[in-house]
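Q: Sequence in, structure out?
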Amino acid sequence: MKKFRLLFLIFTTFLDRYFQKLSGNIFNLLKLRYFILLISLIFSLFILIKYIVPYYNQTIISEGIIGVYAKNNLPSAVTNLLSESLVEMDKTGIPQPKLAEKWEVNKELNIYTFKLKNNLFWNDGSKVLSSDLKFNLPDLEVKYPDPSTIEFKLADSFSPFPTFLINPVLKNNSLTGLGKYKVDSEKINKGFITKLVLMPKNKNQDLPVVIIRFYPDEKTAKTAFDLGEVDSLIGVSEIKSYKNTPNIMTKQMQIFNKIVAVFYNTKDNILS
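A: Exactly. Output:
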């Protein structure tokens, strides 16, 4: 808002000086004042519609996530809001179709052919095409025989392959998905996302606005949380300092996308 106010003051000052040079009577000066008032009203209406109305009477959730992310590697806490997956796991751990209508596999278990459901549309209104979906998996060849078919060819036989397709899909590695939320605005610094504002896809949905901020390390994230910049944090490894703090609730979750490893030098006389 400070930037807009500064630009407005510069603009009105310029108009005032310009018209004063052209007019030397009170009548023209009054016309100038009315003109500036009209511009002010238009500018205020723009700010109201663009930045205030979308959030009016809506709950806002502010969330902090620790880590450095680009568009192609966002954590599941974000992508699950933006989109859905080809396959989902049922309660027994068996993969079931979700965006995919069905899939077939050859006898060698190395070629999987997925058929998309009909009438799937991205949140930007465009129809979902098989070629919109990109997959970054090793030793995998992907083909798109037609707009609703995806063929995966593996280097070797692998029967659990469908379980690798449980991550939400996005349109051409963008931030456009098929979920309940869509990206309203984003901030990027040196190729990495620092802030996302997510709005419900349908305005009549009783869902809150979600503001997500990304922090490069735990110390910065905790400082932001202590200052009230975010209401919650995801990815904190040390929570002892918050356990006995009033009005703060902690919850431990299993994280499956990180590995803690210890490497030993087996050539060393002692370690070997």
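The mean pLDDT is 84.
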